[in-house]
Structures are given as structure tokens and as C-alpha cells.
Task: inverse folding
């Protein structure tokens, strides 16, 4: 549903990251259809998919380390007009980035780099945001900050979010709905609360995951 946070959980190699990349057109799906807003985007180029309102913050952040915060945001914007229109909104969402706007991305902390990756994906004002492992490599306190930021983005910007996350506890606690992916197949679905309380999910993904 529009405006929801949907979590996709599963073990390593289940196909979670591949699914997000396929939605963005790299690689293209070998079979079936990807429908977005009742439109078949399966064969569109990545550029066309982004223009349609989808944005992707990939696993590992993948910011440009030798570019400044501003330069990274400029790359995320569709054009100069988009950047000029949206940059103040981004700095309101992430005031720390405003303080670091002229700093090279690679010199910032892991949490700040993750904020930059989120901001770069948001500056094009997407309607659907794909997040791949936003807590990867972060200390527990920073993980809580990042998930708080994701919730605020969803609530204030009304952006739909598809969240891939190894930290199943935080992901399901945040999500309106969740899906469990096993070897490329959805095996279970439910609300975030239902999956949190499912004994099978707790045993497979949640024990020790807080």
C-alpha cells in the first residue's frame, strides 16, 4: 500500500539485494513483470525507472568518498533545478549533513555516510524508496538513529519504503508489513507485529537480534 514501510527479511543469499536491483533495472528481470503505479517498468532503463519516482540506497552506502556532501547530493538530484529546489529540504531532514556540506564523504563517520546515502536517494523526491541494509556496519546507537530517521522520512514525507535488512528485529518493529524471502520465493507474510511474534520467525531470524 502507498505510504507503507514494507520489510523484506531473509538469510544471506536469499535474493533480497538482487530483487531491489532488478526493480531498478540492473539486471533486467528474465521473466515476469515489475509493475509500478499500474505501469510495466520491467524493460525500462535505470534512468527511466528513477525518473518514474523510484530511488535506491544500495547496500554498503556507495557514496562518492572523494566528493563533498554537496557534490554527492548533486549527483542524486535529477538536474540542477531539482537540486536547488530540494537541497534545503534535505538539510532540514539531516541537519548534520548541512554542517558537513563541504566535507568529503569518505572522511565522515559511518552513520553520517549512511545519512548521506539516504539523502542522496531522497533528493530526487521519490514516491518509492528502496533501502538495502541501512544498518550494515553501524554501532547499535547509530542503528537506532538510522531507523528513527527512516521512520521520520516515512511519516513526514509520506514516502513508501521497501526495506531490506539483516537486523530483522529492527526492520519488523519499524515495518507496517513484512515478507520473508527464502531462495527467491516469498514463504511468509504478515504485519510487522505478526512476524515479530511468529515463533518460526523468532527462532530463525530474531534470537539475539536486538
Result:
Amino acid at each position: 500500500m502507498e505510504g507503507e514501510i514494507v520489510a523484506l527479511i531473509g538469510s544471506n543469499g536469499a535474493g533480497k539485494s538482487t530483487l531491489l536491483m532488478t526493480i531498478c533495472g540492473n539486471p533486467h528481470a528474465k521473466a515476469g513483470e515489475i509493475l509500478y503505479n499500474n505501469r510495466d517498468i520491467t524493460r525500462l532503463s535505470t534512468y527511466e525507472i528513477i525518473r518514474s519516482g523510484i530511488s535506491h540506497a544500495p547496500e554498503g552506502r556507495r557514496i562518492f568518498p572523494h566528493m563533498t556532501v554537496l557534490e554527492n547530493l548533486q549527483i542524486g538530484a535529477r538536474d540542477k533545478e531539482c537540486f536547488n529546489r530540494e537541497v534545503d529540504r534535505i538539510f532540514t531532514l539531516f541537519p548534520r549533513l548541512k554542517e558537513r556540506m563541504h566535507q568529503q564523504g569518505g572522511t565522515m563517520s559511518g552513520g553520517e555516510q549512511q545519512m548521506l546515502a539516504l539523502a542522496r536517494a531522497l533528493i530526487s523526491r521519490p514516491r518509492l524508496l528502496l533501502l538495502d541494509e541501512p544498518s550494515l556496519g553501524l554501532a547499535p546507537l547509530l542503528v537506532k538513529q538510522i531507523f528513527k530517521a527512516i521512520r521520520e522520512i516515512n511519516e513526514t514525507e509520506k514516502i513508501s519504503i521497501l526495506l531490506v535488512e539483516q537486523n530483522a528485529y529492527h526492520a519488523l518493529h519499524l515495518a507496517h508489513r513484512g515478507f520473508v524471502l527464502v531462495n527467491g520465493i516469498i514463504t511468509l507474510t504478515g504485519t510487522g507485529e505478526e512476524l515479530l511474534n511468529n515463533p518460526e520467525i523468532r527462532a530463525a531470524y530474531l534470537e539475539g537480534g536486538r
In short: The domain at 5-206 is CATH 3.40.50.300 (Rossmann fold). The CA atoms of residues 77 and 122 lie 9 Å apart. The longest helix spans residues 140-157. The mean pLDDT is 91.
